[in-house]
Write a structure and sequence with these properties.
Blueprint lengths: L5 H24 L1 H9 L2 H11 L3 H16 L5 H37 L5 H28 L5 H14 L1 H20 L1 H24 L13
C-alpha cells in the first residue's frame, strides 16, 4: 500500500486552512450584515439588510484575492485577504452599493404593483433585472480581484455582458448562492463556519473562467 506523500498532506492542510481562514475573515468583514440576519426578520428588515450589503463587497474581494494567491502558491491567507480588501475597498463598496440599489428598486416596484392586473408583466421583468444584478456582481468582484486598476464603468459593463454570455456559469453560481442562503436559514453555524468558503470558491471559479477572454497579461480587464 502506497504511503501518502508529505506534499499531499501539505496540500490538504493548506486547502483546509484556506477555507477555515476565509470563513473567519468573511465573518469579520461582513459582521454588520451577519448580525442583522441573525437578529432580525429579513422580511421586515430588508431595507437595513440592503444598506449593510455593500459593506460585504471588500470582504468578498478579499476572499477572492486569497483564492487567487493560494493558486499562485501564497500560503499567508490572512495577509492576502486584507491586502485585497485594502486595495479594492472603494470600488468593491461601489459595486455592492449599485447592486443593493438595483435590488431595492426591484423590491419596491414589486411590492407596489403586486396587486395590479399588469403585475404579470412587471414582476417577471423585475425578477430578470434582479437576477442580472446578482449574476453580474460575482463577475465584477472577481474582475476587481484580478485587475484592481480597471475603471468601474468598464468593470461593470464587461461583467454584465459576460454574465449573460456565459449564462450557464451564471446559472450555476446563482444556484450555489441560493443553496447557501437556504442552508443559512436552516443552519447558520454550518453555512458561516463550513460551507461559505467552498461555495464562494465555486462562484469565483465560474466567474474567473467567464473572464478569461478579457483578462490579458497586464491584468487590466478589456472592455467587451
Amino acid at each position: 500500500m502506497r504511503r501518502i506523500s508529505h506534499d499531499t498532506y501539505a496540500s490538504i492542510f493548506s486547502t483546509v486552512y484556506l477555507g477555515l481562514m476565509v470563513n473567519v475573515m468573511l465573518l469579520v468583514g461582513c459582521a454588520p450584515l451577519v448580525f442583522l440576519l441573525l437578529t432580525t426578520d429579513p422580511a421586515a428588515s430588508w431595507p437595513l439588510l440592503l444598506i449593510a450589503t455593500p459593506l460585504c463587497g471588500p470582504a468578498l474581494v478579499g476572499a477572492l484575492t486569497a483564492f487567487r494567491a493560494h493558486g499562485l502558491g501564497e500560503g499567508r491567507v490572512v495577509r492576502a485577504f486584507w491586502a485585497g480588501w485594502r486595495r479594492t475597498a472603494g470600488k468593491a463598496l461601489a459595486v455592492g452599493a449599485i447592486v443593493a440599489v438595483v435590488l431595492a428598486i426591484v423590491l419596491v416596484d414589486v411590492r407596489a404593483v403586486s396587486a395590479a392586473s399588469w403585475s404579470v408583466v412587471v414582476v417577471p421583468l423585475c425578477a430578470t433585472v434582479a437576477l442580472l444584478a446578482l449574476a453580474t456582481s460575482p463577475v465584477a468582484l472577481t474582475a476587481l480581484a484580478e485587475a484592481p486598476g480597471t475603471p468601474l464603468r468598464v468593470l461593470l459593463s464587461t461583467a454584465a455582458v459576460l454574465a449573460v454570455r456565459r449564462w450557464y456559469l451564471s446559472a450555476v453560481s446563482l444556484l450555489v448562492l441560493a443553496g447557501q442562503a437556504a442552508l443559512f436559514v436552516t443552519s447558520p453555524a454550518l453555512a458561516l463556519g463550513l460551507t461559505a468558503a467552498p461555495a464562494l470558491y465555486l462562484i469565483w471559479a465560474n466567474a474567473r473562467f467567464a473572464l478569461r477572454p478579457v483578462l490579458p497579461a497586464d491584468a487590466t480587464v478589456a472592455a467587451v
